[in-house]
Amino acid sequence: MHVVRHGIPAGSIVTWRPRWLTYDEAARRAGVSAWTVQEWRRADMPMTTDKAGRRVVREDVLLEWKVRRLRANPARSRKR
Questions:
Q1: Helices 23-30/59-72 angle, 10° precision
Q2: In tens digits, what is the pLDDT along the chain, a chain of 80 residues?
Q3: CA distance 25 to 61
Q4: Quick one: CA dihedral 42, 43, 44, 45, positive or negative?
Q5: How far is CA 16 from the centre of its chain?
Q6: What is the largest CA-CA distance in the chain?
Q7: Torsion of CA 10, 11, 13, 19, to 10 degrees
Q8: Cα separations in angstroms, 51 against 11, 22, 45, 54, 67
Q9: Which of 57, 59, 64, 69 has the smallest CB count inside 10 Å?
């Protein structure tokens, strides 16, 4: 048996489960303010509501959204 990455044997089936983030968690993960995450939602970033009634976004969706926004406006990527 060959071991590949992270101690997972080659040929193993790994199930990927999305990580859901609240506004504050998403802001920390993306390095922006919670207000910015709310603005992205208003600009149609896909979000849903969890069982507790909080707005949440999938981590991969959040990061892809951030990359698209930076590509669309590279000047915003510079810290002021």
A1: 50
A2: 454 556 666 666 666 788 999 999 999 999 999 999 999 999 999 999 999 999 999 999 999 999 998 888 877 655 54
A3: 14
A4: negative
A5: 14
A6: 52
A7: 30
A8: 35, 12, 20, 7, 28
A9: 64
Q: Which CATH architecture has domain 19-77?
A: Orthogonal Bundle (1.10)
DSSP-derived pairing of the beta strands 55-58 and 48-49 = antiparallel
Give DSSP secondary structure letters for 9-78.
Answer: BTT------PPEE-HHHHHHHHTS-HHHHHHHHHTT---EE-TTS-EEEEHHHHHHHHHHHHHH-GGGGS
Residue 13, amino acid: I
Q: Six-digit token pair at 64? A: 């892809």
Q: Are 4 and 14 in contact (CB under 8 A)?
A: no
CA–CA gap between residue 52 and residue 34 (Å, rounded): 19
